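In this notebook, the sequence line spells out the residues, with the fold written below as integer tokens. This is how one looks.
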Amino acid sequence: MALVSASILACDQTRIGEQIIKAEAAGIDYIHVDIMDGVYVENMTYGPQLVRDLKKISGLPVSVHFEVCHPETFFPIFADCGADIVTFQLDACANPLHLIQEIRKRGIKAGIGIGPTYGTERLAYLLPCIDWLIMMSAEPGYGGQPLNPCIYEKLREAQEIMAKTGSRVPVSVDGGVNGSNGQGLVEAGADVLIAGSYVFQDDAVEERVQNLKNL
């Protein structure tokens, strides 16, 4: 059974709390919050107060995904607001090991994100240091994009690296995940399916979450 992380990027922004409560009742495992700065990607999204407010209405882990330049400057304020998992894009950080250590010092799980045009070759050196891995199956920045098929090969590569190194972390897939491609992603090595548009479109949250959970 796949774990499901619901991305609030696809929520009706006037109904985020309501929709997250509905998704939690449907069985999601994580709340996924994309933080975008308008620099690393063109889009801009949320501030730290939203994380604090989500923690008030839900007991689920809040996974914060930085799609920002200089994630080390953003991390402390989101840590103070209760983020449970903090992931940053590997290509956006000059000193990833230092940031990983700083995140873990706060008792927060540390993750790295790898964009669809970047390879998995650095994973062997970073896996022993991290708690979470997001493999991007669409370019960072905007919801509703189709899944890039290169993700299947990269998932298999990540699983091979974990087997060789003996270091294993949950592998999440982010971008274009839906009920049609989810089974293939799980078979290729995904542990967590991050889904936004698929979960929250058409107000069919319970059905969509169960479709993913039953894969």
